[in-house]
Amino acid sequence: MRHKNIWAGGLYALTATAVTWPAIRHLATTIPQGSESVPTVPLFNLWTLSWNVNRLLHGYQGYWDAPIFYPASGAFAFSDPQPLTGLLAAVFWPFGSAAAYNLILLLFLALNGWAAFTLLRHRGLPLGPALLGGLLVQMLPFLAHERGVLQLQPVFGVLWAVDGLWQLAERPRTRFAVQVGLGVAITFLTSGYYALFLVVLLATAVPFLPSFWRKRRFWTAVWPGILLAILFIVPVAWPQTQAIQAMGFSRSIGTITKNSATLSDYGRLSAALRFHHWSPWPVPGNQALFPGAGLLVMALLGSYSGLRQAERRRWTLYLLAGTAVAFLLSFGFNLKVGDWQPYAWLRDFVPGFDNLRSPFRWGYFVQMYLALLAALFLEALWRHGRRWRWVAVGLTALVLLELLPAPARLASVPPPLDVQALTPPLIFLPFPESKSVRSYADTAVWMAAASSVPMVNGYSGYFPQTNGQLRDLLADFPTFGGLEALRSLGVRTILIAPDSLTPAQETKLAAEVADGRLLPHPPLNNFLVYELPDAQFNPAANYTGQWALDVAVDGDELALRAYAAVPDTQIYVVTPVLAPLKWQVILVGEDGRRLEYLVSPPGTVLLYHDSNLRLPVVIPLPETAGTYTVTLQNEDSGEIVGKTGRTFIGK
Predict the structure, then answer these.
(1) Who has greater pLDDT, 280 or 144?
(2) 84 within 8 A of 91, measured Cβ to Cβ
(3) ∠457-461-464 over CA atoms, to 5°?
(4) What is the dihedral of CA 483, 488, 493, 497, to 10 degrees?
């Protein structure tokens, strides 16, 4: 068995190399881009690995305070940190960042196939169908389509967890519980998205498990696995959650709906496949979730075969249930059952789902379960004798041909930018002009080239509010407002791509230099370099004016919004840790009742004249409805900085 596993691993390693071809030929200089129109996401993931390796070399000190989005704290928590992927990358880092990224990708794809193979073997499938089933899982079209998104490639942890759960239910042993725990932990540490999905998929399996799981022996064996998963997950999940809450981040229903699947998406073949143009009909849609006609037919036949066999029935029913659950949840807010939205319920009651932006990614698990069902059909053919085994191999070859990826589109990895002689924090210009991924292509290049240098620029799953404000202030740089914002942020060095400048901007730059407001430095790698004199971080605590207050009832909470009417050209910075605002909210009722709450508005924002920005804080709704005066007081000085008139507060 061990030799067969080794040979299987070798086969899947070769397949991983083939489906990412020609990446292996350019191992040290490029990384796969997948279906992404620009290399923003793959280069961002390369930066993520780089920061993981950097912090490993420093004992993980300051792990969450990645040097992007200066002066925001905890910026590494704004996206999937992928700590295990980064740890593995450190092994290959001496070969170069691009080589490490590519080797990690190949390793993930090989492990996907091998994990599916071992799962199928443990479900009793012969060697041949298990090998072929692993190839189907390895070559699913979703993986090819999302090849530029590194954290969406590893699914082996999911397969190990499912495999361990079924073995645990059949034979309650601590080692199987440990396998489940490690599978869950590995999934979380390589892909936060998949870890949350895995929780639902494991829960889906419970009704179909052998009845042994209801006995005490099962639960005695399962505890080590649960504790192991907690041990690995909590030290990462807790600080990440705290950082996200401190910034006040949330996903809007509109954003989630936009990234939810539609029925037409399941009829759309990925353009990342070599023969996608053979599709007989063009299908509109934002996503490409069609699993392939051959795989779909084989999965249906596998379902029929599995349900007919008593020893396969529970497993088949679970695969069908997993397919159905993943399919329905992929529709996100596009799915309604009367007035009930299943995805809304999931967001409300399962921790973590409120931060997920893209329900359509459930579509990958639809494809994965279909591949496992197809393996049951291959097993049925296999058991009919030698001739039918060749039929199984031939049919699998046809399906794999349909799913064959096109030659990988490769993105060049920028050489390191030597910024040691420059004084941070830096900003690279031009600043992105919109929220689109394409607008951040240059930002991702600069992050990858200067991965450990504090900079105002950044790209992630979440963006601080300063990012949108700077987009407006720096739109026609240099302007008075733009320069004042950078001074208030404490930016010391400005790097400008010269080909981005219009003649009018060049003239304004020359005037700023002549007036001494910008100090030129020698160019660096074709960047124009300027020092910003007299730059000094200006925290919002320096604002001595008053705050206008809006009060509104929001369910069981009282929502306050504070507006600073900055009267001059000063720009102030609010950010947790570096420049928090510490307030005390005091409610005084008509009967003299006094309620006090310590609050601090979340997020990183700029306060300036005409910014029209209101800082939100939330306190509990008073138990007794009535008329209250709301006072905002500086916690440190005790000075009253804002006050409302008598306001009725109640449901």
Answers:
(1) 144
(2) no
(3) 50
(4) -40
Would you give the end-to-end CA distance of the chain in angstroms?
Answer: 67
User: Is the pTM of the predicted complex or chain greater than 0.85?
Assistant: yes
Residues 556/620, Cβ–Cβ less than 8 Å:
yes
Q: For residues 282 and 280, give the distance between their C-alpha atoms in angstroms, rounded to a whole number.
A: 7
Strands (E) in 391-482, as ranges, are: 410-412, 426-429
Give the integer Cα–Cα distance in Å for 479 and 410: 38
Other Cβ atoms closer than 10 A to 76 = 23
- Would you give the distance in Å from CA 642 to the centre of its chain? 39
φ/ψ of residue 193, rounded to 5: -55, -55
Dihedral angle, C-alpha 485, 507, 532, 449, nearest 10 °? 90
Average pLDDT over residues 326-342: 91
Average pLDDT over residues 218-226: 85
- Residues 201-233 as b/e (b if ≥16 CB within 10 A, e otherwise) read bbebbeebbeeebeeeebeebbebbeebbeebb
Residue 420, CB-side half-sphere exposure with 13 Å CA sphere: 2
**What are the pLDDT digits (tens) for 14-69?**
999 999 999 999 999 999 998 888 999 999 999 999 999 999 999 999 999 999 99
Residue 136 structure tokens: 């189907």
Decide if 205 contacts 166 (C-beta within 8 A): yes
> Which residues pair with residue 535 across a beta bridge?
none
* Max avg pLDDT among 5-9, 89-93, 336-340: 89-93
The answer to whether the beta carbons of residues 41 and 146 sit under 8 Å apart is no
Return all residues near 451 (Cβ < 8 A) that are at least 6 apart.
47, 50, 51, 54
CA 459/CA 440 separation, integer angstroms:
7
What pairs with residue 337 in β-bridges?
A: 340
Judge whether residue 506 has pLDDT over 90.
yes
| DSSP string computed for 505-560 | HHHHHHHHHHTTSSEEEEEETTEEEEE-TT----BGGG--S-EEEEEEEETTEEEE
> What distance in Å separates the CA atoms of residue 118 and residue 115, rounded to the nearest whole number?
5
DSSP string, 252-263: -HHHHHHTS--G
Please give the pLDDT value at position 613: 86
Whether the CB-CB separation of 532 and 456 falls below 8 Å is answered with no
* CA Rg value for the chain: 28
Between 465-473 and 480-489, two packed helices, what is the crossing angle to 10 degrees? 150
In the Cβ-directed half-sphere of 124, how many Cα atoms lie within 13 Å? 14
In the predicted structure, residue 275 carries a pLDDT above the cut 70: yes
Helix and strand numbers, DSSP H then E, in the chain: 20, 16
Structure tokens at 540: 């919002």
To the nearest whole percent, how much of the chain has pLDDT over 70? Answer: 97
Write b or e for each residue in 579-601: b if 16 or more Cβ atoms lie within 10 A of its Cβ, otherwise e.
Answer: bbbebbbbbbbeeeeebeeebeb
The two tokens of residue 278 are 């053979």
Distances (CA, A) of 373 to 35, 110, 299, 314, 379: 27, 20, 5, 12, 10
Q: What is the pLDDT of residue 3?
A: 66
Q: How confident is the model at residue 127 (pLDDT cuts 50, 70, 90)?
A: very high
List all residues 6 or more positions away from 386 whose beta carbon is below 8 Å from its beta carbon: none
